[in-house]
Amino acid sequence: MQRAAALVRRGCYPRTLGPWGRGQSSAAAEASAVLKVRPERSRRDRILTLESMNPQVKAVEYAVRGPIVLKAGEIELELQRGIKKPFTEVIRANIGDAQAMGQQPITFLRQRIHLTSLSLLPERFCACAGSYSASQGVNCIREDVAAYITRRDGGVPADPDNIYLTTGASDGISTILKILVSGGGKSRTGVMIPIPQYPLYSAVISELDAIQVNYYLDEDNCWALNVNELRRAVREAKEQCDPKVLCIINPGNPTGQVQSRKCIEDVIHFAWEEKLFLLADEVYQDNVYSPDCRFHSFKKVLYEMGPEYSSNVELASFHSTSKGYMGECGYRGGYMEVINLHPEIKGQLVKLLSVRLCPPVSGQAAMDIVVNPPVPGEESFEQFSREKESVLGNLAKKAKLTEDLFNQVPGIHCNPLQGAMYAFPRIFIPAKAMEAAQTHQMAPDMFYCMKLLEETGICVVPGSGFGQREGTYHFRMTILPPVEKLKTVLQKVKDFHIKFLEKYA
Amino acid sequence: MQRAAALVRRGCYPRTLGPWGRGQSSAAAEASAVLKVRPERSRRDRILTLESMNPQVKAVEYAVRGPIVLKAGEIELELQRGIKKPFTEVIRANIGDAQAMGQQPITFLRQRIHLTSLSLLPERFCACAGSYSASQGVNCIREDVAAYITRRDGGVPADPDNIYLTTGASDGISTILKILVSGGGKSRTGVMIPIPQYPLYSAVISELDAIQVNYYLDEDNCWALNVNELRRAVREAKEQCDPKVLCIINPGNPTGQVQSRKCIEDVIHFAWEEKLFLLADEVYQDNVYSPDCRFHSFKKVLYEMGPEYSSNVELASFHSTSKGYMGECGYRGGYMEVINLHPEIKGQLVKLLSVRLCPPVSGQAAMDIVVNPPVPGEESFEQFSREKESVLGNLAKKAKLTEDLFNQVPGIHCNPLQGAMYAFPRIFIPAKAMEAAQTHQMAPDMFYCMKLLEETGICVVPGSGFGQREGTYHFRMTILPPVEKLKTVLQKVKDFHIKFLEKYA
To answer: Where is the Aminotransferase class I/classII large domain positioned along the sequence (chains A, B) (predicted)?
Structure first.
């Protein structure tokens, strides 16, 4: 009704308002008479209800924008309405959106995207922003991506035909999983995912009614991936399903671990042995902070393992404009490189992509610019390098700061943040707090995070949203706020945690 | 190998090339030794094959970018390589992409999008292009869309909470269908779609393993929708499935018919009677050419039918930046207005959308600008009006021209193009041509279209890609090339058709 009143003020609305905002017009009365329906209002059951909806969709959970984030939104509205809280703002440390937390876009990227949309760079961008592109993405952008991959991987060749531009990496991951999942009963496709994981994977597995096969990262060993654990997982899974896919996130999300080259070789060998289609989510490939770690692409390692592997292991690798030093989340730019596909499958994949026509051309443009940064000697190079180093240096500093500060707090243990943009500390939850959580019908870490949010305004995501070993609890917090703000946030979390321990001692 | 050579020339590549482009490096040799795998190349079976892939994806067809379009691409490459053909260019009249065929973007739209990306319009665009937006879309854009709908519908109120921004209309349609489909066996959800249809619908139904329930538009009556045919379809469907959804495309694609208000009321009443969730695909709402036709939104008609309908019928209406006078396909801008959802379903829908994070912000910006055109008195108004009228006037002229010319051709009958941007003429295919088609293992209209492509370079889509009554054949051709080119195209189709009839007489 308020909205109707507002519309009247705007002059968009007839001045006679009936109980439904407009009143029963003569057209409506006539229609009702013709159709012989009594015009009183009756409430009928809905066709689409929790019972009748797609059960696979009902089972989907996506904690990164889940219940705690909805609660954060409500609290923000309350703050806007002047309701007093122990804090003046909600800090959204739940989602990997750097620019939303104040990170500046890279000047070169933005200028280029801009010139592209003005069609001032025909030689660089051979498509029209207003038209659909080819479903696999603009050809010359795919060539640029292939050239980028080749340079990144020290000369290991990438074929543009194996490159698919996507609407963010999420779209590519979802598409590949969709084409892979088949079978029924004990032949239903099993998809191996790390625990903890980025919950896109569990959500898509749920949507597709595939079988989620968990393999646990080793928290006591910096979240390392242990091939014995992969073997354990696949062995047990074979009793229930047909394991066909192995998903790796490197650098990890939420865990931030950066896999060693040896580990990657072991994983590839395991996939080769067990006949698993490999998905390598490498969106954080530019976010490596630990001086002892280095990003190794699955593609490169696979190639260097020789042709028995490089000609046979089916591998899809994913990248995105949303992370790294770019932080261009809103453009929904991404690509996947998919190698060793059966020749007949390529056509099926392009067919599937064609139904959605094409990814947003502006996102493709953004991806093109990301893979074509300025090189030494070019006018833009200095500023670009400076800005990139500043962003990444800042993130590295914040990674260390976060790890150190959390590890000073009794009852919190935080593994080193080797890469990505998150801390995933383990929290000790006292027995009394567990009981309180149970009373509230919440997982203990959700209870903890809700309390944190209500008392400090800091929004993080409970570890249960990512998966964790039974009996352990965590939360995921981004390291994206500016340094000074991050220090304040960390201090508040520390103070909260100490009070929490005291309260529920 | 050519690519490898090119990479060497670019200096990205070691100069010693082995049979796999790089040669076995020492790292690879070492790895092979450690893993005890003999390094010769052997070809293993693929994990992902036509047999093992998702059968629902295998069943998907999308003719608009299907086999004939792939053939057109091959022919283009041959032309580029200098192979002589009876024509010098391929004319892609298969897809509704206006700007790809030379239509100019609207100045106001492009300037605004541009200023938005420069963040020079903070009061207009309350989001950051680099960040993820809310999953339902930027709030103030949703408010603008609601205001647009209210103005368009003469004051019928639209609630921003019911507006969801999407990655093109395809994304919204796919999401709504996904949440609706459930059940198994004879309880599997049936989705009613028009025949002929836009094959996104059949593709998504296939992906979701739902049941496609065809209702036939009446070709002898300008492709009118007859409620008796809806009743026939739902009655028969109930023996096989649980019909739950009714999809309408108005103005129609590929058929171009614009539904009368009376027809829309009848459809709404039918949906109310049969308890069907209504999907109204209205992406061509600005493309109405026939002076006897007018666009009536389902939302408006529903509202004016009084509260028994307007409070109960679950309706999702879709719009896009890709069609109309805008033709902004590459931005992937779209929205859906979904009313009368069960309160618990709203949360489920937003949850499902949140897994993909958000639609591209540039597409949301484009949609925002589309719903906020200049008004009389504003500086941009004159030019905007002029350009809009020019585009739409041109399309109307081409619609009539196409209908008239096709109807002069013996063996072709073309219904009036009341709206949208396609002709869908019926073609007579002689018996000998049917036999030839069978020899080539093609549907007769595919055979016809292939011949048309090979002999004239004109790429259209066979009617079998959209559905048609048994024993009838059609093709869909866009009316998007510039007038003079379109006349040439039509003349060539005419000449081809006459020769075709003679050849297969």
So the answer is: 131-492
Residue B311 CA to residue B301 CA, distance in Å, equals: 13
Contact criterion met (CB < 8 Å) for B22 and A303:
yes
Q: Where are the beta strands (DSSP E) in A207-303?
A: 211-216, 242-249, 277-281
Question: What tokens does B296 get?
Answer: 């009536």
Are the Cβ atoms of B180 and A44 closer than 8 angstroms? no
CB contact under 8 A, A354 and B64: yes
Residues A288 and A293: their CA atoms lie apart, in Å, by: 7
CA–CA gap between residue B307 and residue B304 (Å, rounded): 8
Residue A426's φ and ψ, nearest 5 degrees, are: -90, 140
How many residues are there in chain A? 505
Alpha helices in A338-482 (DSSP H): 343-354, 361-370, 381-407, 431-439, 444-456
Distance from CA of B430 to the nearest CA of A (A): 31
Which amino acid does the sequence have at B239? E
Contact A28 B204 (CB under 8 A): no
Reported as a single tens digit per residue, the pLDDT across B256-279 is 999 999 999 999 999 999 999 999
pLDDT at A418: 98
Q: Which of B69, B132, B270, B346 to mutate to test the interface with A (most CBs of A within 10 A)?
A: B132
Contact residues, chain B, for A168 at CB < 8 Å: 356-357
| Cis ω for the linkage preceding A251 (within 30 of 0) | yes
pLDDT in tens, A384-424: 999 999 999 999 999 999 999 999 999 999 999 999 999 99
Tokens (6 digits) for A185: 């009963």
Secondary structure of B390-415 in HEC code, one letter for each residue: HHHHHHHHHHHHHHHHHHCCCCEECC
pLDDT at B90 over 90: yes
pLDDT tens digits, one per residue of B164-222: 999 999 999 999 999 999 999 999 999 999 999 999 999 999 999 999 999 999 999 99
Which residue from B31, B100, B110 is facing A132, i.e. has the nearest CB?
Answer: B100
Pair B63, B442: CB distance under 8 Å: no
Cβ of B305 within 8 Å of Cβ of A35? The answer is yes
Measured between beta carbons, the chain B residues lying within 8 angstroms of A13 are: 150, 155, 157
Using the predicted structure, report yes or no on whether residue A120 has a pLDDT greater than 80.
no
pLDDT bucket at A343, cuts 50 / 70 / 90? very high
Chain B residues close to A60, C-beta within 8 Å: 351-352, 355
Mutate which of B68, B114, B131, B191 to test chain A, going by most A C-beta atoms within 10 A?
B131
Question: How many CB contacts within 8 angstroms connect chain A with chain B?
Answer: 355
Contact (CB, 8 A) for A281 and A198: yes
What the block records as the tokens of A330 is 């809103």
Q: Tell me what pLDDT residue B457 has.
A: 97
ipTM: 0.88
- Answer whether B357 sits within 8 Å of A118, measured CB to CB: no
